[in-house]
Amino acid sequence: MKKYEYLIFDLDNTIFDFWGAEDYALSRISQEDGLEFTPEVLEVYRTMNKGLWEQYEQGEISQTYLNEERFVRWFAHYGIQVDGSICEKKFRHYLAEANTMMPDALEIVHELKKDFVMVAATNGIEETQLLRLKTAGLENFFEKLFISEVVGYRKPSKEFFEAVVAQTEGMTIENALMIGDSFKADIYGASRIGMDTCWYMENPERPTEPEELLSVEPTYQIGHLSELYKIVL
Question: Which UniProt keywords are present, listed alphabetically (predicted)?
Protein backbone atom coordinates (compact mmCIF):
# COMPACT_ATOMS: atom_id res chain seq x y z
CA MET A 1 0.00 0.00 0.00
CA LYS A 2 1.33 3.42 -0.95
CA LYS A 3 2.21 5.75 1.92
CA TYR A 4 1.39 8.87 -0.10
CA GLU A 5 -1.61 9.78 -2.20
CA TYR A 6 -0.67 13.38 -2.96
CA LEU A 7 2.61 14.65 -4.40
CA ILE A 8 3.25 18.38 -4.03
CA PHE A 9 5.85 19.75 -6.43
CA ASP A 10 7.71 23.00 -6.31
CA LEU A 11 8.06 24.38 -9.85
CA ASP A 12 11.28 26.39 -10.20
CA ASN A 13 14.39 24.20 -10.32
CA THR A 14 12.28 21.16 -9.53
CA ILE A 15 10.22 20.85 -12.71
CA PHE A 16 11.30 23.97 -14.59
CA ASP A 17 14.99 24.78 -15.01
CA PHE A 18 14.62 28.32 -13.71
CA TRP A 19 18.33 29.19 -13.80
CA GLY A 20 18.60 28.20 -17.45
CA ALA A 21 15.46 30.13 -18.36
CA GLU A 22 16.61 33.14 -16.34
CA ASP A 23 19.98 33.19 -18.11
CA TYR A 24 18.20 33.20 -21.46
CA ALA A 25 15.73 35.93 -20.45
CA LEU A 26 18.39 38.19 -18.97
CA SER A 27 20.66 37.78 -21.98
CA ARG A 28 17.84 38.85 -24.31
CA ILE A 29 16.94 41.87 -22.18
CA SER A 30 20.53 43.01 -21.73
CA GLN A 31 21.29 42.77 -25.44
CA GLU A 32 18.16 44.71 -26.35
CA ASP A 33 19.13 47.53 -23.98
CA GLY A 34 22.78 47.75 -24.95
CA LEU A 35 24.44 45.79 -22.15
CA GLU A 36 26.92 43.04 -22.99
CA PHE A 37 25.83 39.89 -21.17
CA THR A 38 28.74 38.20 -19.37
CA PRO A 39 29.03 35.93 -16.30
CA GLU A 40 30.14 38.96 -14.29
CA VAL A 41 27.13 40.99 -15.43
CA LEU A 42 24.84 38.09 -14.52
CA GLU A 43 26.39 37.86 -11.05
CA VAL A 44 25.75 41.58 -10.46
CA TYR A 45 22.08 41.04 -11.32
CA ARG A 46 21.73 38.02 -9.06
CA THR A 47 23.33 39.82 -6.12
CA MET A 48 21.00 42.79 -6.51
CA ASN A 49 17.99 40.55 -7.06
CA LYS A 50 18.78 38.49 -3.95
CA GLY A 51 19.02 41.62 -1.82
CA LEU A 52 15.64 42.87 -3.03
CA TRP A 53 14.04 39.46 -2.44
CA GLU A 54 15.31 39.53 1.14
CA GLN A 55 13.72 42.95 1.62
CA TYR A 56 10.47 41.64 0.15
CA GLU A 57 10.45 38.59 2.43
CA GLN A 58 10.88 40.92 5.41
CA GLY A 59 7.85 42.91 4.24
CA GLU A 60 9.93 46.01 3.50
CA ILE A 61 9.03 46.33 -0.20
CA SER A 62 6.21 45.19 -2.48
CA GLN A 63 6.37 42.48 -5.14
CA THR A 64 5.84 45.07 -7.87
CA TYR A 65 8.69 47.23 -6.59
CA LEU A 66 11.00 44.21 -6.47
CA ASN A 67 10.07 43.09 -9.99
CA GLU A 68 10.84 46.45 -11.55
CA GLU A 69 13.57 47.89 -9.32
CA ARG A 70 15.96 44.98 -9.89
CA PHE A 71 16.24 45.92 -13.56
CA VAL A 72 16.52 49.64 -12.86
CA ARG A 73 19.42 49.05 -10.46
CA TRP A 74 21.10 46.46 -12.66
CA PHE A 75 21.28 48.68 -15.72
CA ALA A 76 22.03 51.80 -13.65
CA HIS A 77 25.12 50.00 -12.34
CA TYR A 78 26.44 50.23 -15.91
CA GLY A 79 25.18 53.75 -16.55
CA ILE A 80 22.10 52.72 -18.54
CA GLN A 81 18.61 54.03 -17.78
CA VAL A 82 15.68 51.68 -18.39
CA ASP A 83 11.97 51.44 -17.63
CA GLY A 84 11.68 48.73 -14.97
CA SER A 85 8.09 47.84 -15.83
CA ILE A 86 8.96 47.24 -19.49
CA CYS A 87 11.97 45.11 -18.54
CA GLU A 88 9.81 43.06 -16.18
CA LYS A 89 7.25 42.36 -18.91
CA LYS A 90 9.98 41.28 -21.31
CA PHE A 91 11.55 39.13 -18.59
CA ARG A 92 8.31 37.21 -18.02
CA HIS A 93 7.86 36.72 -21.76
CA TYR A 94 11.37 35.36 -22.27
CA LEU A 95 11.13 33.10 -19.20
CA ALA A 96 8.13 31.39 -20.76
CA GLU A 97 9.74 31.35 -24.20
CA ALA A 98 12.80 29.51 -22.88
CA ASN A 99 10.61 26.70 -21.52
CA THR A 100 13.60 24.78 -20.16
CA MET A 101 12.84 21.79 -17.96
CA MET A 102 14.80 19.88 -15.35
CA PRO A 103 16.24 16.55 -16.60
CA ASP A 104 13.45 14.11 -17.58
CA ALA A 105 10.92 16.14 -15.57
CA LEU A 106 8.04 15.96 -18.05
CA GLU A 107 8.27 12.21 -18.53
CA ILE A 108 8.53 11.56 -14.79
CA VAL A 109 5.61 13.74 -13.67
CA HIS A 110 3.37 12.27 -16.37
CA GLU A 111 4.26 8.77 -15.18
CA LEU A 112 3.61 9.65 -11.53
CA LYS A 113 0.26 11.21 -12.38
CA LYS A 114 -1.04 7.70 -13.14
CA ASP A 115 -0.87 6.82 -9.44
CA PHE A 116 -0.99 10.09 -7.49
CA VAL A 117 -2.89 13.34 -7.19
CA MET A 118 -0.45 15.98 -8.43
CA VAL A 119 -0.29 19.40 -6.78
CA ALA A 120 2.04 22.35 -7.46
CA ALA A 121 3.19 24.88 -4.87
CA THR A 122 5.33 27.84 -5.92
CA ASN A 123 6.46 31.27 -4.78
CA GLY A 124 6.49 32.47 -8.37
CA ILE A 125 4.43 35.24 -9.94
CA GLU A 126 1.01 34.05 -11.13
CA GLU A 127 1.15 35.44 -14.66
CA THR A 128 4.63 34.03 -15.28
CA GLN A 129 3.95 30.58 -13.85
CA LEU A 130 0.66 30.15 -15.71
CA LEU A 131 2.32 31.09 -18.99
CA ARG A 132 5.22 28.70 -18.39
CA LEU A 133 2.86 25.85 -17.52
CA LYS A 134 0.88 26.51 -20.69
CA THR A 135 4.01 26.63 -22.84
CA ALA A 136 5.17 23.31 -21.36
CA GLY A 137 1.81 21.66 -21.99
CA LEU A 138 1.09 21.46 -18.25
CA GLU A 139 -1.69 24.05 -18.15
CA ASN A 140 -4.29 21.62 -16.74
CA PHE A 141 -1.88 19.00 -15.45
CA PHE A 142 -2.03 19.67 -11.70
CA GLU A 143 -5.14 18.95 -9.67
CA LYS A 144 -4.41 22.08 -7.63
CA LEU A 145 -1.99 24.94 -8.19
CA PHE A 146 -0.91 27.12 -5.27
CA ILE A 147 0.94 30.34 -6.11
CA SER A 148 2.06 32.59 -3.25
CA GLU A 149 0.77 35.71 -5.00
CA VAL A 150 -2.73 34.18 -4.93
CA VAL A 151 -2.55 32.31 -1.61
CA GLY A 152 -1.48 35.46 0.23
CA TYR A 153 1.42 33.72 1.97
CA ARG A 154 4.85 32.62 0.78
CA LYS A 155 6.78 29.45 1.40
CA PRO A 156 8.20 28.69 3.97
CA SER A 157 5.34 30.12 6.05
CA LYS A 158 3.16 27.62 7.90
CA GLU A 159 0.13 29.45 6.55
CA PHE A 160 1.07 28.63 2.96
CA PHE A 161 1.31 24.90 3.60
CA GLU A 162 -1.77 24.88 5.81
CA ALA A 163 -3.67 26.44 2.89
CA VAL A 164 -2.41 23.71 0.55
CA VAL A 165 -3.74 20.98 2.83
CA ALA A 166 -7.00 22.74 3.68
CA GLN A 167 -7.84 23.58 0.07
CA THR A 168 -6.99 20.20 -1.50
CA GLU A 169 -9.83 17.73 -1.09
CA GLY A 170 -8.75 14.54 0.65
CA MET A 171 -5.24 15.72 1.47
CA THR A 172 -3.87 15.33 4.98
CA ILE A 173 -0.45 16.04 6.42
CA GLU A 174 0.15 12.28 6.58
CA ASN A 175 -0.77 11.34 2.99
CA ALA A 176 1.16 14.09 1.18
CA LEU A 177 4.83 14.51 0.24
CA MET A 178 6.43 17.88 -0.54
CA ILE A 179 9.12 17.73 -3.25
CA GLY A 180 11.39 20.70 -3.93
CA ASP A 181 14.91 22.02 -4.39
CA SER A 182 14.86 24.85 -1.85
CA PHE A 183 15.76 23.68 1.64
CA LYS A 184 14.31 26.78 3.26
CA ALA A 185 11.15 27.27 1.18
CA ASP A 186 10.18 23.65 0.53
CA ILE A 187 11.79 21.38 3.12
CA TYR A 188 11.79 23.65 6.15
CA GLY A 189 8.42 25.09 5.15
CA ALA A 190 6.57 21.78 4.84
CA SER A 191 8.28 20.35 7.92
CA ARG A 192 6.81 23.19 9.98
CA ILE A 193 3.38 21.55 9.70
CA GLY A 194 4.77 18.02 10.11
CA MET A 195 4.62 17.00 6.44
CA ASP A 196 7.14 14.57 4.93
CA THR A 197 9.59 16.13 2.50
CA CYS A 198 11.86 15.15 -0.37
CA TRP A 199 14.82 17.43 -1.08
CA TYR A 200 15.79 17.51 -4.75
CA MET A 201 19.51 18.12 -4.31
CA GLU A 202 20.80 18.75 -7.83
CA ASN A 203 22.30 22.00 -6.56
CA PRO A 204 22.21 21.53 -2.76
CA GLU A 205 22.49 24.72 -0.78
CA ARG A 206 21.47 24.44 2.83
CA PRO A 207 20.99 27.82 4.54
CA THR A 208 22.06 28.33 8.13
CA GLU A 209 19.37 30.79 9.16
CA PRO A 210 16.88 31.09 10.67
CA GLU A 211 18.43 29.03 13.45
CA GLU A 212 15.60 26.47 13.52
CA LEU A 213 16.70 25.24 10.07
CA LEU A 214 19.74 23.62 11.64
CA SER A 215 17.65 20.89 13.26
CA VAL A 216 15.51 20.16 10.18
CA GLU A 217 16.21 17.04 8.14
CA PRO A 218 14.38 16.06 4.94
CA THR A 219 12.54 12.75 5.00
CA TYR A 220 14.23 11.84 1.70
CA GLN A 221 17.01 13.23 -0.49
CA ILE A 222 17.34 12.70 -4.24
CA GLY A 223 19.71 13.85 -6.96
CA HIS A 224 17.36 13.14 -9.88
CA LEU A 225 13.57 13.12 -10.08
CA SER A 226 13.57 9.50 -11.27
CA GLU A 227 14.61 8.50 -7.74
CA LEU A 228 11.07 9.36 -6.65
CA TYR A 229 9.85 6.08 -8.10
CA LYS A 230 11.54 3.97 -5.42
CA ILE A 231 10.28 6.30 -2.69
CA VAL A 232 6.61 6.61 -3.56
CA LEU A 233 5.74 3.49 -5.59
Answer: Hydrolase
